[in-house]
Amino acid sequence: MGLSRAFRKTRGPVLVLLAGVMLLLLSEGLVRLVDGGSHASVPTVALPHSVFRLPVDLDIEVALPGAEPARYRTDAGGARISPEAQSEPDSEILLVVGDSQALGWGIPHAETFGARAADRLMAGEAAARLLAGPSTDPERALYSLRGYIRDVRPTVGTALFTINLGNDLEEMFLGRREPRLRRWQSLYETLKLNSHLFDRATILLRGFESEDGYLPGINTALLALSPAERVLLARGVVDIVRAAREESAAERFIVVLIPNDYQYDTREFDKYRAQYDDPTLFETLQSNIPVMAAQMNTIHDYLRKSLRDEGMRVVDLLEHTDRLAPGRRLFDRYYHHISTEGHRILADAVIEAGGRNGDE
Question: What is the reported pTM?
């Protein structure tokens, strides 16, 4: 009698719980059906020193907005690798270090500048390992490189260290402190990787979050610094690249310099119009883009000259824009990422720089 009474008391909450679980499972299945098996975002894990990279031994398909599905597969150190590559390298590799530009945002591994360069400079595309992730500035990239060399112990034939003027110095200036991680970070990362419903929900919620001072397409913090402060930050980047060259122990070390999109063409800023709720604010910023581009070009030129004065080989995308095929875009039509054509141009320039002193 007592057991029956207890069951009646808990039956309602249990049924509600079961109904909730069934609804979640049904919703998960429907979202997976709509996604066609592809994830809506590239999963990352948070490591010490504010490093964000892809999970180790990952193998998923990702379809980013406006892009075709692309396979993201990683090795034992979290570097993106080709579908044919072994998880642990057994021969010399071409290691690309950087952020989402180096990773290949929404494009197949084979179309990234790292894989294209490896196809000519190394044993083939499978030699390319892209140690990269979003929100990765040069300082964080150096920490990531150190961890990868320590854990994977690869033989690096060629290392490409990427500097993205689109947001690298901005993130380096703002990211000196450890980010405030979620209380249940590991659970969050697990759900983000394994649940399409949770992945979609976090993307939706992020759209409602407001970031104080964030202006799409603008290097807000960097351009607020004085010229002397910007030079000081650029000097820090040169020091980091020098350390990365030593850490990689690569036979070839090449710095890849990628400009902000409006440095290449001030009209690139037009694509961010839809991301501004205030048309007047957008038009005010748009009228100042030529001045901002000139300020960014000053930093860009300083970095290129300083790195070359250090004896480093530098591939600067701005020096090769004449190779752009007619009718093609250098940057994505919606975001600041370089296009597949931009990757092709960079790869050709890297191949030339890599063979400048003869291929070993």
Answer: 0.89
